[in-house]
Design brief:
Strand order of the largest sheet: 1-4
Number of helices: 23
Largest sheet: 2 strands, antiparallel
């Protein structure tokens, strides 16, 4: 019964989170957007103390069920392991805990988090790793399947489905997702939960609490026949059938061992006298685990409480830059992210905001330090003032929840006119497209030469009013494909 309940709950969470990542209609957003907000690391970064406390209490009561039920990467590994078990039964064996690897990975993760090296901690964080895989590999397949059905429906004069653009957001992100999927598949196929119990920082932190869980899987020595079936079916490699012990720091309470035991020698419940030997094998590692956990907590708190420095921006009309549009000196981060530094220190790179963006503005960054975190670009659309989807789904607090009214007053950047790309100057044709479509009225058309009555009308940007939404950049016809107006980001967002 325990195993069946675990499978049902895990299936609900896994399907719900996967649907949220692949869905482009917004339907899943209304039903399953709460699921990412109960992921352990994301709730810690978001300072959601209530959810963190609930997850810790659940672990202290039931053990590491979080890893088997709530974590989508853990469930995905179970699926891969199940496929491997179909190919070869009784494939696992007991192995001792690799403390040096577990705690080294945890320390590396914390250092990367504090230093803001996104590429490192994103690949170590379980939920963000699954998000990268789902966004870059599963969603394109989902959209392609939808487009096939849309073509069939169109031929049948039905509007049940509609076509959705299928485009490559980031080649590096796609390659990383494919490599991670292959690595996880091979590890889970061959050895079950190797990633969870040697690399995953969340698993390492929860293992500290699971050692003291109230309910545990333990042996009845009188019934055990040392047949080794429990060890051969333990995907966490944590059951030593010879000594009748279970490493509770790695056990994810999947209950596969209980089902495989033919003699009823294993049960899930409160500790008994027969379990004292098992408990004693864990005590020698408790002190080192406690030290590692406390160090990790202190460093993580330092990262969360790091101060943000504000970069002052001059007001007035934007300067005319007589040059071809360059790369942005400061990346554009979504309204609600407060600053580029806040985004870098809180975003886990799960890319849920990217998949949820209906305007195709967000895409994974290709910068080494912030790779796979969301950045904004306006080639395919602009950030509509009434849309707050990304702030609603962010589970880590990297993008704070905001209302449309609040968003309309948040300045994430300002527009800059590029003279040599403007068709009004180079082709001597009236345009004014940027001014007509600016939702805040920050752009007005003025004569290039005030003393010449026939001078072309060109845009002037009032930085006090511009919010950096990118409507001007997106809709500018430009010259030879180069936009004549671009948005330069602000490191620190302002309210206007």
């Amino acid at each position: 019964m325990l195993r069946k309940v675990r499978i049902v709950l895990a299936a609900v969470m896994f399907i719900g989170i996967t649907w949220l990542f692949v869905d482009f209609t917004g339907t899943a957003h209304h039903l399953t957007s709460w699921m990412p907000k109960v992921q352990f690391l994301e709730t810690v970064l978001a300072l959601n103390i209530i959810v963190v406390a609930v997850l810790v209490v659940l672990t202290l009561i039931f053990g590491r069920m979080y890893c088997s039920v709530i974590c989508p990467l853990g469930v995905m590994q179970d699926i891969f392991g199940w496929l491997g078990k179909k190919a070869k039964k009784n494939r696992y064996s007991f192995s001792k805990e690799l403390k040096w690897l577990r705690y080294s990975a945890l320390v590396l993760f914390i250092i990367a988090l504090v230093a803001g090296v996104g590429i490192v901690f994103q690949l170590l964080a379980p939920y963000s790793t699954y998000g990268i895989i789902a966004t870059n590999l599963l969603q394109p397949v989902y959209i392609a399947g939808n487009n096939v059905l849309a073509s069939i429906a169109e031929n049948a004069d039905s509007y049940l489905f509609y076509h959705e653009d299928l485009w490559l957001r980031s080649l590096p992100s796609l390659i990383i997702a494919a490599v991670m999927l292959i690595i996880l598949f091979v590890l889970a196929w061959r050895n079950g939960r190797t990633y969870c119990n040697t690399i995953c920082p969340v698993g390492t932190v929860l293992s500290f609490f699971s050692r003291f869980s109230w309910l545990k899987i333990h042996f009845d020595s009188e019934k055990c026949r040392n047949c080794s079936l429990c060890s051969k079916n333990c995907k966490s490699a944590c059951i030593d059938y010879k000594n009748h012990t279970v490493d509770y720091s790695r056990c994810v309470v999947c209950a596969n061992c209980i089902e495989s035991c033919k003699f009823g020698a294993l049960r899930y419940g409160r500790s008994t006298q027969n379990n004292q030997n098992t408990q004693s094998t864990q005590n020698d590692s408790t002190d080192s685990s406690r030290r590692a956990f406390l160090i990790g907590t202190a460093l993580a708190s330092t990262a969360v409480m790091a101060q943000k420095k504000e970069k002052l921006m001059d007001g007035g009309l934007a300067a005319i830059a007589d040059r071809v549009i360059p790369e942005r000196q400061t990346p554009l981060t979504p309204p609600g992210s407060l600053s580029a530094q806040h985004m870098a220190q809180h975003c886990t790179g799960c890319q849920l905001c990217i998949t949820e963006c209906p305007n195709q503005v967000l895409r994974p960054s290709t910068d080494l330090l912030t790779m796979m975190q969301p950045t904004m670009s306006y080639e395919r659309g602009y950030c509509r003032p009434e849309c707050t989807r990304c702030s609603e789904v962010c589970p880590a607090g990297a993008i704070k929840p905001i209302t449309p009214i609040e968003k309309s007053s948040i300045q994430i950047g300002h527009a800059v006119w590029i003279k040599q790309n403007c068709v009004a100057v180079n082709d001597d044709v009236p345009c004014g497209n940027c001014a007509r479509h600016c939702p805040t009225g920050a752009i007005e058309m003025i004569p290039l030469d005030p003393d010449d009555g026939d001078s072309p009308m060109v845009p002037a940007v009032n930085e006090h009013v511009c919010i950096g939404c990118g409507a001007c950049e997106n809709l500018c016809p430009g010259k030879d494909g180069h936009t004549a107006i671009k948005v330069e980001g602000h490191e620190m967002h302002k309210e206007i």
